[in-house]
Amino acid sequence: MTAGNNGADTPENDDPFGYLYRSEGGGQGGSAGDGAATRQPGVPRTSYNQVRAVGQRQYGQQSQQVTYGQQNAHYAAPETLPGGDRTRPTPTSGHGGAPEPRRRNGLLIGAVAVVAVVCIGIGVAMLTNNKNDDGATAGKQGPSAGDSVKPSDGPAQKPKPGQLPKQDAGSLRLDGGASTAKDVPGARSAGGTYVAGMNTPGASATWTMDVDAPGRYKLWVGYGVPGKDANLTLNINGKAESRPINMGNFAHAPEGAWDKGWTRTWSYIQLNKGTNTVKLSCESGNQCDVNLDKIWLTRH
Fold first, then answer.
1. Residue 121 — φ and ψ, nearest 5°?
2. pTM over 0.70
3. For the chain, N or C: smaller number of CB within 10 Å?
4. Higher model confidence: residue 103 or residue 48?
């Protein structure tokens, strides 16, 4: 071998990308180990293939051309073949191929959610209103019996079954100068209210109440005296006869000590079934220097 021809091709003639356009079975000198023809030194290459369109290539003796955008004639969908998949569900209606029942279920769930939200909102509003009403009335005190007492023109509130009526004297019907007051402490009525002004002739306090059965009852009167005995006239259901009721200084209060003279007394009375009236009045011959705080009935 000479220096110009040493049995190998020169580097500039050795194309590393030659396999891309060589014909099948073609090779390069000195490197084809699969039966390819060996290139002789000094002989120009004659194995270059013509440039082919993209997608067209020969494989052995067959030539196949693929045109993009067209369906391959050798391909068929599985469901078109014998025994293919024919069980795939087909959407019936709805956007995007979604089955109609699913759409209806979604609409139903949405409607239920809207109703639930509305109900919750109404409940919250009701709770808020109730809290506002409670806050508006919190801390306010109801009127006491001594602040504004009106005389009783009708029967007192009916007691519970088995109980007899009782009432604060300040809520009785007052006439002839009798009035309510609460200057003297110690009265056993609501708010410390009592009936004063009974020392005026003709002053009276009338109690109207109901009983379930006729008979004899014991009338109790709570009162206060200024350390000395007193009495009033008792009249039942407006009868012509009347009698005094004793209101002694049973508390043994010192004279003039109104706040120490609160005590009670009783007298037997005959009542009818239904509504009855009991009148306590200051008449001629009575010692009427007395205050009244309560009145009630018990069995004899």
1. -60, -40
2. no
3. N
4. 103
